[in-house]
Amino acid sequence: MVANDRNQQINNLLRGLSSHHVETVRDAWRDLLKGGSASVVAVQRKLTSSFWKEQPQGPAAQYLGVLLVLLDELDRDAFAEEINRLLAGEIHPLHRRTVDLLARRRGDKPAFSIGNNLPVYIAPDLESQAGVLLGNIDKWSRTPHLVLDGIVRIDIIADHPEIDYRGLYDLYYSGITLTWPTDNLRGLSLWLRRIRAEFTFYHEVGHHVCGHTEGGSVPDQEEEADKYARMMIRQAHPVLSGAVRTLTLPITITRAMFRRRKIA
């Protein structure tokens, strides 16, 4: 019965991918992660299919990569063994390219964990800043009322000019990617950069907490995530937030008065 449940969950996962149905993929992914060793066996069975010898069509091109990433989340040793088995066997060149790409994850280990064993991965070009990252991310994760339950992993990558985002939330697999600068700022510039990075962290968590399911920059979702981030900033920096509210109170009052006059 358990085996049938896991097989059905894998089928749901792949069906959700083919139809771009976020909730289906997300639910199946989470259920499979909870399945432990039973899920490992089910994924391994799926990966031994002769299907990978054929040329992938449409969404089927994603299936192998998704199953391997899932196996990596479930059991790192089983993932490494499966990578080696696939590379030694006969699979379609497009699938082999996927396996070659994911093979790089075999030595990929989390730099540290936060919360309830949430793994945080740091890109190689940021290893020299691991201590700084640990201090910041761990501190942010302890913000009162911050909810990290259900987030699978956090990846921190170097901020490069070609990257046009500060953070991303993976709708399907509940993972967060954050960018981090490689330049050495000091003083006020460094403080402002860290506050902005902290806000981005809370913003991406906000997407997760709010259960957002639409890809891209959807105004309502972005505002909702910003609202969550602002709430977390107030929780993390109550003194600073109070000072800012006091300093901006005259502006707030003036705007309110202006709106009333305009309405009148």
Would you mind describing this structure in some detail?
Helix 1 (2-19) packs across helix 3 and helix 4 runs parallel beside helix 6. The chain has a five-stranded mixed β-sheet with strand order 1-2-3-5-4, with helices on one face. It folds into two domains: 2-107, no CATH class; 112-244, no CATH class. It is built from ten helices and five strands. It has 264 residues and is α/β, with parallel strands linked by helices.
- Average per-residue pLDDT, rounded, comes to 85
What form results from the Cα inertia axes? Answer: globular
Tally of separate helices: 10
Helical proportion, percent range: 55-70%
Strand percent estimate: 5-15%
How is the quaternary structure best described?
A: single chain
* Poorly predicted tracts of residues: none
Across the major sheet, the strand order is: 1-2-3-5-4
Q: How many domains in all? A: 2
Q: What are the secondary-structure elements, in order, as H or E?
A: HHHHHHEEHEEEHHH
Structure class: alpha/beta
**Could you tell me the radius of gyration in angstroms?**
22 Å
Largest sheet: 5 strands, mixed
The CA-CA distance between the termini, in Å, is 69 Å
Q: Using DSSP, what is the number of strands?
A: 5
List the helices and strands and how they pair.
Layout (H helix, E strand, L loop, with lengths): L1 H18 L2 H13 L2 H11 L12 H15 L1 H13 L4 H10 L9 E3 L3 E5 L7 H12 L11 E6 L8 E3 L5 E6 L6 H23 L9 H18 L1 H26 L1
Parallel strand pairs: 2-3, 3-5
Antiparallel strand pairs: 1-2, 4-5
Helix pairs in contact: 1-2, 1-3, 3-4, 4-5, 4-6, 8-9, 9-10
